[in-house]
Amino acid sequence: MQPDTALIYLRISANRTSEHASIQQQRDDCTALAARLGYIRTVEFVDEAVSAYGERTRPGYQQLLQRIAVAPATVVVWHLDRLYRRPNELEQLLDLLDTSQVRIEAVQGGSFDLNRHEGRLFARQLVAFANYESAHRGARVARAQQQRAGRGLLHGGSHYGYQHNGALEPFQAGIVRQIVDDYLIGLSPTAIAHELTRDGVPAPRGGKWNGTTVSEILTSDRLHHRRFHRPTANLIVAIWDQLISDDESTLVQLGLLLPPRDASRSSTTLLGGILRCRGCGRRLVAGVTRFGRRIYSCRTALARCPGPTLDACQMDEQITIAAVEQFSHAWRPHVPPPEELLQTIRTAREDLASFAISFGAGRLDHNGYLTMRDPLDRVLTVGGIGFAAHRQARVLRLATAEFHHRWATSLPFRRAVICALLPDLDGTSPLEPRADLSG
Ligand SMILES: [Zn+2]
């Protein structure tokens, strides 16, 4: 990819007439913006009449992702909502950033550097809000279901983990229990799905598990033992068996509200995307030198970063020793009350979303947006630290035999444990005392 070429992505959605901008109008605006930014050439990726909410894939978007994957790129769109509407589409895009640099320029609403924390956070706010809206718009509850709801019963049909009478189904309930336990020590839904498939556990509808199925279980009302009477939106006392404790339910909801951690992304190496660069603070990526030596390096900074390149074998060995040693100490981190954490984070997220909407709609300028956002950002950071303390505590409560078995057999488990017990590794010695970890 030549640096003087911008990638233009155009999409028209069939079902959102209020935001309607024709392909030609988007094209004209995007081309003009690319020219203003100094790009001489443009390459277009177009999806026409594809609803972002349908099951159909967007071929133009997929081609765009493939281009981004191979080289640094600038993507020009008419509005951010052309690019992704569902959280998993954004995460797919962010996943690519481990190996590439992507800058997003939008005709409406300014530019976002998705390689930077604030750009990612902002993009996630927007997509979370769009998704929330669409889920509510699409909600249609049948009369019979409402009546069941009114009596505190599960929806009709089968429910993974439960029998028809609302009692637990022992095998499936055990799997759900495992999913919750793994999620709360830091495994991502995708990693959990891989592990279940690897262990030969059949998915709810047969075949392989995927991240979406795991996420559906984690977000389900039946897991959180809550039921709403749709016409009144009143909470009804659920009368089916409870599978997890109230605190665990609160922590799962908290985890789903906080931005996913970079380190929760899948990787085939122990520390890729986990170690931070001592020079610039970015996450290091794994690679292999032309002499075949495995390394972790700060490749995303395009050679301008003075940060060191680390020998991967040596780092893996050193961090493994440190993590296992932390586990064997059996210390107890201080954990803040889950319900308090959840309320604080929920309020901050709602405020952030409304500021982001105001900014996107032009009612708030960039400086005004930053001023409103910064204190909330800090609230989220503190909340993230509180949630991390719970992850630490849960890892430390694992039975010794189980810990060592899973350490030996599961890479996602090792990565989760390292993130929980040794946060913010920067490639200096991880063998420091744990005093600074438990705050
Ligand atoms: Zn660096």
From TrEMBL:
Domain Recombinase: start-end pairs? 150-263
Q: Which Pfam families match?
A: Recombinase, Resolvase
Write down the superkingdom of origin. Answer: Bacteria
Query: Which InterPro entries does UniProt cross-reference here?
Result: DNA_bind_recomb_sf, DNA_bind_recombinase_dom, Resolv_N, Resolvase-like_N_sf, SSR_resolvase
Give residue ranges for domain Resolvase/invertase-type recombinase catalytic: 5-152
One GO MF term, please? Answer: DNA strand exchange activity
Q: Which Gene3D superfamilies match?
A: Putative Large Serine Recombinase, Chain B, Domain 2, Resolvase, N-terminal catalytic domain
Q: What is this protein called?
A: DNA invertase Pin-like site-specific DNA recombinase
Q: Which organism's genome codes for this protein?
A: Compostimonas suwonensis
Q: What is the lineage of its organism?
A: Bacteria, Bacillati, Actinomycetota, Actinomycetes, Micrococcales
